[in-house]
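Hi Prof. W.,

I finally got the DUF28-domain-containing protein prediction working! I wasn't sure whether to trim anything, so I left the full sequence exactly as given:
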Amino acid sequence: MFRIAHAGPSRLAQAGPLRLVHASLARAVSSSAPLASGHSRWSKIRHRKGAADAARSKAWGGFMTAVHVALRKGTDPEQNTDLAKALAAAKGAGVPKDNVEKAFARARKIADGTGKPVTFEAVAAGGKVALMVECVTDNPSRTAGRVKELLSKGGARVSPVGFMFERKGVVRVTPIEGQEGATFDNLFEAALEGGAEDVREVEGEDGTMWEVLSGPTDLATLTTLLTSPPHDALYALQTSELAYLANDPVQVTEDGEGSSVAEDRVETVMKGVTALEEEGDVVRVWTNIAE
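And this is what came out:
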């Protein structure tokens, strides 16, 4: 994998040089309290964005995982039934055709070696919101130019902020209704077996959702464990992905006093995030905004 990296202990106010370097994949178990939302206008913004993210992440997460696995057996859907099923499932889930084609193209680029993962680090206007922009591209220079253009339009710029995030495996599951054993405690024990670092309850659009965090290299093992008997009868997998999680999430307030960020600023940032995620080479944009 590649990323735009910082050369030293720079701060958000200082822009760093643009350069590509290899990023290597870098366990006390704890359980966190449920993450609650506030009642400010940001809460409404977050829920709108969260609903869109949840729907897309659910469709894309399972789709991309299935496609990547299937592509190991070949890139021709006519010869590869697993790949054909993955594509059909994505269409059945309502993923727009254009999005399916872009995602499939990215997956093929990785599988055939023509595409490489590239991550850009950036800071939004005001210097408080950090962004990690994950891409897959066969032309890093072209993608860098396009990402920088979109960042600029939204008032953001490339800056070394990778030190503000940790790369983690994130698996989200929901309890299957009517299953007596589908409890948080049972999930916690199962997650421990799979190498989890943390298990916490988060807000889901349809109720309870549990989020299991792991180191990057434990994600595949953990996902396989939770989707195999007996756990697959207790919990429904929603997403499984490698994520950039903020070490110290920035809080959102009405006026953006102190180290917090103003609601109006966040709304502008999220519009920029949406524009970036509509770009063909962009897979996902992560921020350090608190949930």
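Residues 87 and 277 are 20 Å apart (CA to CA). Does that look reasonable to you?

Thanks,
D.
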